[in-house]
Description:
2-enoyl-CoA Hydratase, Chain A, domain 1; 2 domains; 6-stranded mixed sheet; 9 strands; globular
Amino acid sequence: MTITATSVEWTCFNVSIEDGVAHIQLKRPQAMNSMIREFWNELPVIVKDIDHNARARCIVISSTGKHFSAGMDLAVFGGGGSSSQNQAQDRWISAEQQRHHVRWLQDCFGCLDDARIPVIAAIQGGCIGGAVDMTSACDIRYASADAFFCIQEINIGMTADVGTFPRLCKIIPEGWVREMAYTGRRMPAEKAKEIGWVNEILPSPEACVAHALATAREIAAKAPLAVTGSKVMINYARDHTIADGLDYIAVWQTGMFAGPHMGEAFKAKSEKREANFPDLQPLKHGM
Length: 287
């Protein structure tokens, strides 16, 4: 039996796909959707299945309960420890192993950034610690009026390490990243919108999710190749110089400009109907 994102009862998530939109919903509200070990194991499997097998054209991540997520469960912090007593006594050996564990955690959110399709976060209540890392890896963020953001790591004596700083410094002014990182203060939704952390504020969590799904359906109606091309180019421009970005888009267009897709867009508009575009193809792994 082939395991797909929607065919499994996940510990931390509910997953549904409709109208070209995959909805991944955190489902542990009684625990403030903290990121337990299963969370880290399940999220990349779900996202990669949807992305690699072209099961949807856009992903929405939302949550349940009062808070979006309280961040990493404290039990996860022990996950990178040495398995040998002798190695545990050698801090340099242990540190090398821990580095790989942190890189693995980073990759769990990197799958959102690397996905060929856009990922939209609908955030309510607290978006704390690891949840900031996760939503920073999304393409678009919407928040309900009660939402707030907190780089919590400084409050427990550590430095955020799963993606907040490399990504958030590209999203909001660096001064705000520094203030949040050094003080551990909460930033309310209104201020987050003012500085560009979130695109829009909705009056309630339900309205926030509805808005995110509506935007996702709008994206899903566009030409998938053009959407993925846009994501690739935006990410590349974020990480490279203007000159490099201009050169790469020229190379991309040389290989993947799709005249028939443009023709269908114009034809559908003239005929006052929805355009019919081909889905992305599943990725090939192995021979």
